[in-house]
Each structure stands twice: as C-alpha cells, then as structure tokens.
Design brief:
By secondary structure, the protein is α/β, with parallel strands linked by helices. Helix content is about 40%, strand content about 25%. Helix 4 runs parallel beside helix 5.
Length: about 240
C-alpha cells in the first residue's frame, strides 16, 4: 500500500491524515494544538508523528497546507467597483485568500492609509481590459511605487501596459509578480493565471514572512493556503 501524509496547519489545531494513495482510503488521523506561540513545526511534527504511528508507517511523503497566522490576507485594487474590482475579489477568493480590503479608482492619500491599515499580505492590482483604459492602473502602480510599498504585488491588469508597470514597480523595489489580465475582455473573467500567481507569492513570501517557524523547513513543506487546497480538492471530486 502506497501512503502519504496530508496535513493542515490551522490557526488553532493542526490535523494530519495518512491516506492510501491507491484506494483513496483514510488509514489514520491525528491532531495537535497549533504551536503558533513557539514554532508551528512542533505541533505539525506531533500531529504527523501520532498519525503515522497509528498507521504503522514512517518515511512517507508529506502534503501540507496552512491557514495559520491568519492565512493569506489579500487586498484588491481595481479600476472601478462593479467590474474589475469585483473580478479581482472573486479571483482572490478562488485562490483561498481572505480578502481584507477592496478599493477602486485612482488611489489617493486616504486610500493608501486605508490600504496600509488593512495589513494585507498580498495586493492584487487589476484594471482595464486588454487594450482598454490604462490610466487608472498606471496611476495606481505609480502611487504604490512612490509610496515605497514593500508588500508583494500581483499585477494582473491591462496587458498593454503590463511590462512597463512591472519595470516601474521593480525599479522602486516593490516585490511584484506579473500575471495575465483577470478581465481581458468585458464579460470574460480569466482567474487562473492570477490565482496561480497569488499561490506562488503566498508560498514564496507569506509563509516565511509570518515568522511562524524558524528556518526554512516549514516554508518548504507548505504547498498551498488551506482554502485553496480545499477548493482544488472539491474541483477534483466534482
């Protein structure tokens, strides 16, 4: 029997399950308190150790997801509230994010203050269809660059200015990842590239940045935000 450990590091409890990869059956399960106060690996190792001991297995692969430390906090900045900002919000939710802030239009000083107060882990910057309005997206990217923004940004707006705005943000030392437009044409929502980019940023920046564990082992183990993993599982089952 080929088995693997599937584990979820939650804000309160860490759950581990030993799964039969051939038949899809649950072999054993265990849980332990999530040790956010010290190092989340303590709780994770305890839960996995108990589950594998119950199953009588060792040295099996681990598949870990996490929502500890608040999970993935996402802010969305769009062109206008009813289409692009909401499209960005839907993309964020599909990526397993907790959308903590949504803004639309040209960012002003008060908008930047509100954005900082929301304490996002990632900002999804969208706006304009491909070949459509580029002024608002350009203004907002420029505003973040001038504000010395240091929270990772996923740029997924008008493809005609994508390269220029990527260069602008990178030159200002804003951590930026580029994805295809979430709304390439009116009425067409294309969430997959931005969702993948948000997942990449979550794994590369957020997991390590929350200081949930010392060293790099936890960041190497985690493969997805918990809601993202659950959604993917539901898609597979469907």
């Amino acid at each position: 029997m080929s088995v693997a450990v599937c584990a979820d590091v939650g804000s309160t409890y860490t759950k581990a399950a030993v799964v039969d990869l051939d038949g899809g059956g649950l072999v054993a399960a265990a849980a332990a308190p999530t040790t956010v106060g010290t190092d989340v690996l303590h709780g994770l190792d305890a839960a996995v150790g108990a589950a594998t001991a119950c199953a009588g297995v060792r040295d099996v692969p681990w598949y870990v997801c996490s929502s500890a430390g608040g999970g993935l906090r996402l802010a969305v900045i769009g062109y206008e509230p009813l289409v692009t900002a909401q499209a960005g919000r839907r993309v964020g939710l599909s990526a397993g994010a907790n959308v903590v802030h949504v803004a639309a239009g040209r960012l002003g000083a008060a908008d930047l203050t509100a954005l900082r107060a929301a304490r996002p882990d990632v900002v999804l910057l969208v706006g304009g269809t491909d070949g459509g309005d580029a002024e608002t997206l350009t203004h907002n990217a420029t505003r973040l660059a001038k504000a010395r923004w240091r929270v990772p940004v996923v740029l997924a707006g008008n493809g005609d200015v994508r390269d220029d705005l990527h260069a602008l943000l990178a030159a200002a030392k804003v951590p930026v990842t580029v994805a295809d437009n979430v709304l390439p044409r009116i009425g067409v929502l294309a969430p997959a590239p931005a969702r993948a980019a948000i997942r990449e940023v979550f794994l590369r920046h957020v997991i390590g940045g929350k200081k949930l564990s010392r060293g790099g082992r936890f960041a190497r183990l985690v493969r997805a935000a918990t809601p993202d993993a659950v959604l993917t599982g539901v898609e597979v089952l469907a």
